[in-house]
Amino acid sequence: MTGQGGGGFLEDVLIAGGLLLVQCTIAGYLVFMGHLLALGANPLAVIVVVNAATSAFFLPFAVALERKKWPSKISLTLMAQFVFIALGGTLGFQELVLLGIKKTTPAIASAMPNLGPGVIFIIAACLRLEKFDRACKYTQAKVLGTLVCLVGAMALSFLQNPSSSFSPASDPNNTEPGSYYDWILGCSYLFAGVIVFALYTVLQAAALVSFPAPLTMCTVTSAMGAVFTAILQVILEGKMDMGSPRIDAMLIAGIVVIGGVVAGACLVFQTWCLGKKGPLFVSVFGPVQTVCSAILSAALLGKTVSLGSLAGMALLFSGLYIVLWAKNKERPRGDHLEGENAADVEKALLS
């Protein structure tokens, strides 16, 4: 919108700069998580601490800033959406990502989510939230971009030499025969995480139509996710435990601050940017996180990425930008959807 003049330009600059900072911050968070997991931290316990801290920190802000946006009555449909967002976005996605980091590297873990726009396109097309016209060149471009992303993800998974990704200090028990299996398993976890991410993103976009309070939604679903994860850990292990005596009070404080507050603030800022600029603009900055993760994990943890996986990343990023370019050219239209609400979901999800 050019009518806003200098104010609009300044906002654009601040949003772009903020998103760059967010991607670098999340990269540091993933490297920190990789260090914790190498020390033997239990992923479920980490998820509980991170999301409990996020919910506790942002609850006052949600009440102060969004209380007027809360509906007078919470419907069963909205409550069910919150539950599934918490199960998918908090428990499912975060657990899969942490398991993936544990068996690969933070750089690979940050690269895989760039599959998200392509996978979201497939899911949204199946749900008729996304225009799919085989004769349209933009639809063809989105299909091509999605295929390139998938090829890049496969190259990322299979062309890496796992032994080059683990430093002796971080994984002294690593052996060559099992490392390749662990690597593929880790990439499978990350790919499954992308699928879960795409599903809960579609659901989140639908929920925001009837509940336009993203900060409150993040706060509530984080709290619910922490409770669900704690219950799961108690069921599976019989107790709440961080998993290793090396996870001391200082590291737990780091999880609270870095994971709960800093990474939570990044999530809230990204959610705000989604409302201002749309998911496509936010997605453009995804590769920055991968580059920062690769640099930090190499410098701090001694983990490297092979040339084959770098080629896979290049393909993945190329496919991502093809999908984003095609979606930017093809403006969402609600005339092929049934009802105004469906058009609102498409706008929230893919505009």
From TrEMBL:
In terms of Pfam families, this protein maps to: EamA (PF00892)
What GO CC annotations are associated with the protein?
Answer: membrane
Question: In terms of one coarse class, where is the protein primarily found?
Answer: membrane
Respond yes or no to whether keyword Membrane is given for this record: yes
Q: List the membrane topology term(s).
A: Multi-pass membrane protein
Q: Which residues form the EamA domain?
A: 185-324
UniProt family annotation: Belongs to the drug/metabolite transporter (DMT) superfamily. Plant drug/metabolite exporter (P-DME) (TC 2.A.7.4) family.
The UniProt keywords, alphabetically, are:
Membrane, Transmembrane, Transmembrane helix
Q: Which residues cross the membrane?
A: 12-32, 44-65, 77-101, 107-129, 141-160, 180-203, 215-235, 247-268, 280-301, 307-326
What's the protein name?
Answer: WAT1-related protein
**What compartments host this protein?**
Membrane
MF (Gene Ontology): transmembrane transporter activity
Coiled coil regions, renumbered to chain:
none
